[in-house]
């Protein structure tokens, strides 16, 4: 049996392994500090399609195909796909995966979707409902700006608190097979709303949710921050990082030595002018699939808490004057190899 831990967590008796990963990114991401860790860098932002949205669907399709290929499995051996993106009705995922003929769960957790997909996929595999599943998340700078902010042609000035949506897709094959890198547990986040109304400051909206789930993970498992080599948030950026550190300090936990943020790592702000950092579903997904997995495989790190963060807003809620709630999901990933 799986073990429910504390208030919001699960420890897996038989932890599913991350059998393979794939990370495909756009040109700007391929010019950043993590360029050597991605499987593929795409020069054309539409990937030869007629729109940014179709290009994002192609990113999803290619990432899933690459992850399956690297796993050594056949497509028919994947029982479920857990997939999500930022677009209305999850059109990047659905159109990208509609021809794969694999049962699909479409997920929306905003930029926390990679954590949600990995959590649900791990629960499904660990419970014996599937031998192998695929988890995937994507985002695209062009399609996200078009939906949530301004047309790119408008050329609006971005405030320093703004983040740059990552163009890319990260995919993961989870399996009951024995493997070195496993998901040992999860902590599911709650919606956290501190009343933020600025859509150009997602770090401030998401930091309280990240603090909440990190705090609960440490409480539920009765561990200290140094239990992990890294506590890795998704896309808080420089603004959100400062808020996160303060909130946890106020609650008795100092994670400064362990903390890393994918949104800060994926771009070189001084050279690439990305202001607070990177964001989008793909920000944490491709960083985990490439950079973080490499650190785990080489045993530079043996244990990380992966905490992608999401801002739960839409154009409808924002234009109606609603606040921007946040959510985050914690995924405990370890190298248990000999």
Report on the structure:
With 338 residues, this protein is an alpha/beta fold. The protein has helices at residues 27-30, 52-71, 91-97, 113-126, 141-148, 202-220, 237-250, 262-265, 269-272, 281-297, 315-319, and strands at 3-5, 9-11, 17-25, 40-41, 80-84, 104-107, 132-139, 164-165, 168-175, 181-187, 230-233, 259-261, 278-279, 303-307, 309-311, 326-328, 330-335. The chain has a single domain, classed as 3-Layer(aba) Sandwich (Peroxisomal Thiolase, Chain A, domain 1). Helix 2 (52-71) crosses helix 3 (91-97) and helix 6 packs parallel to helix 7 (237-250). It is globular, with a radius of gyration of 18 Å. 53% of the residues are buried.
Summarize the SSE layout with pairings.
Blueprint: E1 3-5, E2 9-11, E3 17-25, H1 27-30, E4 40-41, H2 52-71, E5 80-84, H3 91-97, E6 104-107, H4 113-126, E7 132-139, H5 141-148, E8 164-165, E9 168-175, E10 181-187, H6 202-220, E11 230-233, H7 237-250, E12 259-261, H8 262-265, H9 269-272, E13 278-279, H10 281-297, E14 303-307, E15 309-311, H11 315-319, E16 326-328, E17 330-335
Parallel strand pairs: 3-4, 5-6, 5-7, 8-13, 11-12, 11-14
Antiparallel strand pairs: 1-2, 2-10, 3-9, 7-9, 10-17, 14-17, 15-16
Helix pairs in contact: 2-3, 6-7
Mean pLDDT: 91
How many domain modules? 1
What is the 3D form? globular
Structural class: alpha/beta
Count, helices: 11
CATH topology: Peroxisomal Thiolase, Chain A, domain 1
Task: Note the gap between the termini.
Answer: 25 Å
The helix content, as a percent range, equals 25-40%
| CATH homologous superfamily title | Stage V sporulation protein AD
Q: Strand percentage, roughly?
A: 15-25%
Q: Class, according to the CATH hierarchy?
A: Alpha Beta
Order of helices and strands: EEEHEHEHEHEHEEEHEHEHHEHEEHEE
Radius of gyration, whole Å: 18 Å
Q: Count of DSSP E strands?
A: 17
The strand order across the widest sheet is 1-2-10-17-14-11-12
